[in-house]
Design a protein that fits this description.
With about 290 residues, the chain is an alpha/beta fold. It contains twelve helices and nine strands.
Length: about 290
């Protein structure tokens, strides 16, 4: 970690030269998950040509490499620099609720750069942020992720404890931030199946359950990469209570919002994650 902090102190212009090297190695040399990326793109965009898909894939690997050095930079990046590079277009969406003491749920997807978005919302808005995370298999990367996220004021809640922690926080001004577009592959996960990017896709049912349980409004963070090292976030209120027990508009609105930004900037989503590794039948879901 000490060595990473030293490396993090390099200016971003230097770190982006390292990113160029990472891109060359991951894309051309080791061909990191090239088949997974190509398969996901081809199934998601059946109307695009081979050249178009190859261009999206290449840009994705460039963005992925930038994400690596940008995330490293969070070890030492100043608050002023975060504010300069991550612009929230309409923070009043959050602040209008905060003035009423209303807690809320933040949802976003793996659209670059989600780590900078978390740092930014802690600095731009009033409500304390609690991010929901799943413990990683690597203790080092688990510690690293929590370190950079807590550095700007966020607090961690382990995924399996989010329900009880939400109950404890009831009545206080706070926000629960969740990245919810991963593959829900643990057998104990309750899944919600829907059509996403032209494919039958499973999502975590838990985000819907959490909104119904808390009766909190849900805000989607729509991240756009403006240029290298600069991002813009649009806040979109996608659901408001009251919600009924069998109300699935929260998760469906999230799916549509995620799909919308992917269609707008397809090279900005995490295609290297094997999102469709198992079908509904293989998962044993009815």
């Amino acid at each position: 970690m000490f060595l990473l902090k030293l490396l993090s102190r390099l200016p971003l212009r230097v770190l982006y030269r390292i990113s160029d090297l990472i891109f060359f190695i991951t894309y051309h040399v080791i061909r990191y998950r090239r088949v997974v990326v190509a398969t996901g793109l081809r199934r998601s965009f059946p109307d695009k040509s081979t050249d178009e898909l190859s261009n999206i894939a290449r840009k994705f690997y460039k963005n992925f490499s930038d994400y690596a050095v940008e995330t490293l930079k969070l070890l030492t990046m100043s608050k002023e620099e975060v504010r300069r590079r991550v612009v929230y277009k309409n923070p009043e969406v959050i602040e209008s609720l905060a003035r009423r003491g209303q807690a809320m749920i933040y949802l976003t997807s793996h659209q670059f750069n989600w780590e900078w978005l978390l740092a930014g919302v802690c600095l731009y808005t009033t409500p304390p942020v609690y991010y929901v995370y799943q413990t990683q298999s690597s203790r080092f990367f688990d510690d690293f992720s929590n370190l950079i996220r807590k550095r700007y004021g966020a607090s961690a809640i382990r995924r399996e404890k989010v329900g009880r922690e939400a109950v404890k926080l009831k009545g206080t001004l706070h926000s629960l931030a969740i990245l919810a577009d991963q593959f829900p592959g643990i057998d104990a996960d309750k899944r919600y199946w829907t059509t996403f990017l032209n494919q039958e896709t499973a999502f975590f049912y838990g985000i819907n359950h959490l909104a119904v349980m808390t009766q909190y409004p849900v805000i989607f963070f729509m991240s756009r990469k403006i240029r290298r090292g600069f991002y813009e976030c649009e806040l979109v209120k996608i659901a408001e209570p009251p919600y009924s027990k069998d109300d699935f508009r929260i998760i469906e609105s999230y799916v549509k919002a995620t799909e919308k930004i992917i269609l707008e900037q397809p090279d900005g989503w995490l295609w290297s994650h094997n999102r469709w590794k198992r079908s509904k039948k293989e998962m044993g879901d009815n």
